[in-house]
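Lab notes, practical 5.
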Amino acid sequence: MKTSEPGSQSDGEVLADLLSLMRLERLEDNLFRGQSRDIGSPRVFGGQVLGQALAAAGQTVTGRAAHSLHAYFLRAGDVESPIVYEVDRSRDGRSFTSRRVVAIQHGRPILNLAASFQLEEDGLDHQAEMPRVPGPESLADSRHYKREVVSKVPEKMRRYLTTRRPFEFRHVEPPDLLAPRKRPAEQFIWFRALGELSQDPELHKVLLAYVSDYNLIGTATLPHGISFLQGNVQMASLDHAMWFHRQARLDQWLLYALDSPSASGARGLARGRIFTADGLLVASTAQEGLIRLWPGDG
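Output from the prediction step:
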């Protein structure tokens, strides 16, 4: 099921569509179905499958909050077809609950996810310091610099750049999509949902899993001065890990601090830390992705 054409929806409609996307249809006790969306790319956005898989796992858990997930992307998803999520209730312990989820499309798995949930309890408390960067108020919405390059890229890339997103992104150092320069493997991006959200804390974690897939693996390309808009660059997420440290609201500004410690063997590793505007570390991420650079300019 596809969304309407880019630009035809308001911010509120785009966000409402995402919330609808994360509400899964229960087919059986451990079987759920979610719809797919076209965000302008040739395959289902990985964050969509992550968020839906976490939502499916969460529907089999009561009284415990998600604290981590680990996933492998197995195949590209088809934006024209729904996805079925099969949940295995691996363990219900005294403090922790474990779930395994397989996302299935056209009879084949496209993602495997393991998620863990925990009863609320007190313990040791410390965190990394938030990077000192300009606040979001002084930065431009990423939609502005994307508009400047739309007319200069191939038609197949334009839909990806112009399709509305349910989140606003503001880069501390905006990328040059057409002529990227080599720079250190780190970037800082502010983001928030395009409208007010409910109080449901697990919904905010599902949405955080969704949005965490944006910009991660691209961080590994920064030292090499390449762009996904080049015809000779192939990029795809291979896996995704996430840890939820503290509660956050996705309708308030969050800072995504990203870095890449390594790229080799046609793979790049990227890590992320997500902070609230007042410096609270709410989540950490890690992802390895495929990065192939073919000879020529495509």
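Observations recorded by the TA: The chain has five helices and 13 strands. The chain has one domain: 11-120+140-293.
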